[in-house]
Structure formats: C-alpha cells, structure tokens
Description:
Blueprint: H1 2-14, E1 23-27, E2 29-36, E3 43-44, E4 50-55, E5 61-68, E6 78-91, E7 98-104, E8 124-125, E9 135-137, E10 141-142, E11 156-160, E12 165-170, H2 172-183, E13 191-194, E14 204-207, E15 217-223, E16 226-236, E17 243-250, E18 255-262, E19 275-281, E20 286-291, H3 299-304, E21 315-321, E22 326-334, E23 340-348, E24 356-366, E25 373-380, E26 385-392, E27 405-411, E28 416-421, H4 427-435, E29 446-452, E30 455-463, E31 469-477
Antiparallel strand pairs: 1-15, 2-5, 3-8, 4-5, 4-14, 5-13, 6-12, 6-14, 6-15, 7-11, 7-13, 9-10, 16-23, 16-25, 17-22, 17-24, 18-21, 18-23, 19-20, 19-22, 24-31, 25-30, 26-29, 26-31, 27-28, 27-30
Amino acid sequence: MKQSNALVALLLLAALPSATLAVTVSLPPQKDNTLYEDAAGQLSNGQGVYLFAGLTQSNGLRRGLIAFDLSSIPANATITGATLSMFLFQSGPFPGEVNVSLSKVLRNWGEGASNAGEPGGAGIQAEPGDATWLHTFFSSVLWTNPGGDFSATASAATPITMDSMTYTWSGSGLVADVQSWVSTPATNFGWVILGNEIDPGTAQRFNSGENPSNPPQLTVTYQVPTLANISTRLRVETGDNALIGGFIITGTQSKRIIVHAIGPSLPLAGALADPILELRNSSGGLILSNDNWRVGGQEAEIIATTIPPSNDLESAIVATLPANSSAYTAIMRGVSDGSGIGVVEAYDLDQTIDSKLANISTRGLVQTGDNVLIGGLIVLGQSPLRVIVRALGPSLPVPGPLADPTLELRDGDGALVAFNDDWRDDPIEESEINATGIPPTNDLESAIVRNLAPGPYTAILRGANNTTGVAVVEVYGLN
C-alpha cells in the first residue's frame, strides 16, 4: 500500500544515528565522619580533616563514613558511571598491600561539630548529632549493630600500596548504589569505608571533605531520556498551508542544530521539487533562510555535520540557538509557490550539554491518502520517556481547521502503539491526559499519553472519515 510505503520512508529518515545525551557531574561530600571503636560510644570527628579506616597498632578499629547529595541528578536518570576518588595522606606501618572497600550504609547518620585535629586518629569527645561506634546520632539514636549498619557485600574495593596519592573506587556496585539513591533518595546514607580489620597497623588516613587539599569527590555519569531528531512529513501547499515545524529548546546552554527541508530525494510520487527553508524565532523574526543547501555560505558547515541533504535542490540551515525554553519555527515552502510532499527535520548536533529539543509541534494542511500529517521523533537514553502526543484541529484560530482529527502512534517497526479519536471517549485515558496539565481544549481533538522506550516513533494525524483541514500534531516530553 502507498500509505505503508510512505510510513516506512519517514521512519528511515527519523532513524539516522545519534549519540545519547550523557552528563557528568563531580560532587563534594555532603557529610563524612569516622567511627572509632569505643565501648562507651563517646568518640567522633565530624569536622576533622581526615577519615580513618582499618586497624590501628593498638588494635582499635576505624571505619570511615561518607555520603553525597545527589539531588542535582534527575530522578529518571540512568546512571552509567560512578567513581569515588579519595586522597590517601598516610597509611599505617603494615608493610603489605591493604585492601580498602566501600559498602552501602543502611541507616542515616550524623556529622556533628567534633574535631579531633591533626592527626585525629584517636578521635575526640562526640558532639550532639555525631555518628559514633554506638550511635547514628549522638547521644540518642543507636546503630542496630555497634560499628554501623551496612551491607555485608562490598560495592567496590581498591588495593592501597603507597601514601600521598589519589585512589579511586568504581564499578557496577557503585553504579547500582548511586542508581538506587537517585531513584529513592530517602535511602541515600552513603558508604562505609572499610580497611583491613585483621592485621594491626593497617589503618589508613584519607583526606576528608573538610580538608582544603584534595577532598573526596564522587564523579557520576548519567543519561536522561529525551526527545531528539524530529521530522515531519506533509504535502506542502501555498500561503498559510506551508509546512511549519515548531520546537522549544530547554536548559541553559545554547543548542547547535541542523534543520533540513527535504523534497526531491524522497522516494515518493509527488515530492516537492525545490523546497525553501526559513528558521524563525518566537517573535517571528527571521534567523536564517536557505534555498539549495550548497548555496548561501553554509555548505562547509552542513557537510561537517555528516548529515547534509542528498539532493542539491534541498535546503539546510545550521544554527546555534539560545535555550532557556526559547521557541523556534522552521517553515518549508516550495520555490515559485510549488507544492508537493516534503519533510522538515531538526537534528540535535550536541547532546553533551544540558539543553535539549522539547515540545515538538507541526502545523499544516491535512489531506487524504499519503498527504496526511506524519510526525517523527526519536527517544534517546536508556530509560522510557513519558510523552503526550496531541492532534489539534477545531481549536485552532486559523481558516479551514480540521474538524475532527484522529491520531495514531507507531513504533520504529510501524506497529501500532496507540490510537485515539476524541480524547475524552475513554475515562481512563481522559484521566491520564488531564493529569498532564495540557489536555486538548476541544472534545473532538485527540491525545495519547504513553511511556516510550528509547527508539524512533511516528505520530500520524488524519481527518475522521477522510475530512481535510489545517491541523497541528504536538509531542511533549513529560519527565
């Protein structure tokens, strides 16, 4: 069928390779302390410049505690890397290699005002709110087990061989710990630092978060699901019935993008022979325009993106656009009022920064057959992205709006994910749509809310009973 072939063509366009957004943050300790083995539970070092772990020459156990504030990492992030770095100021006199491990702490604990000074290995009288060998918070709340409550399984371990150098702990265990804390912040009690607790003289002295020189640092790399590489296919007409694609750039850092206006290279009958492209800001001001991508001074920049149009009559614009929820439109027309099927695409060229493409919308004249409105998008990341897709018509303040739009959402294989005609028809779906805070304003309009796994998708907007008119398809990332 023609309709199926057209859909496959769009999916291939939408599925060009793209890097996944990865963000790396480096965090200082939120709190740290040392547990000093003491039958009375009176010793601590909350504000001291060192942490201790291992067994002293006099057979006294020391266990460090350290925790980090992860609230700057989005709750829906997928953690892909976690590394704790600590500077070893001095090791004990034990001559051999010492293994130091991290285990997940299972109870909350405190860092009070105690300060044992230098070197601090013997501790000092605990202050209110300090963690001690017996107390999570001195002097009223006790550990279940003296010496702290923590997982019996180490999350990571590193061999210590010499003084005055930085050691790191990393691996799948730390990734799992940080992921669990990001997903469930109420369980974030940090790690206990455990040294050799068998051989005397193995206690290690690490710089703490209060130390002005080389304090500990947790480096976390994560990915968040996001919309990217948007494309829309429609029959381009004249006047107000041009193909108009809109998007918002969220975040703070300026976003570098490329926008394509594709026509003659489409494997479709009736493709637009010679498209023109305009990029405008939210006030309607012209940022850039192009007719034929090799003309206009950006040819080298477009080639450098590695995704130039494949036909010289097609158009492209490379631009670095301010973020902060700024809105933009890409308008595609035909040269000399030409008409035909066209595709407008926007690609994110730098997914390593905090800004992203969001809230995608496209407006145009919806006709029948292959000339319906088809929007393509890609969900990037390693976890699902919750979206709402809307098909608007009767609420649009334009001449000739589509009276009754229907909406299909399909995955990268063309399989139907969901269908909607009139968003209030199903009470359960109506409730989900209302909960987004942005339901359609007309009962004849359509909407779909879904959690989408990473991959390409298409939203297909038609008129009920093959009716025609101007319509808008929109996609909003909800998380």
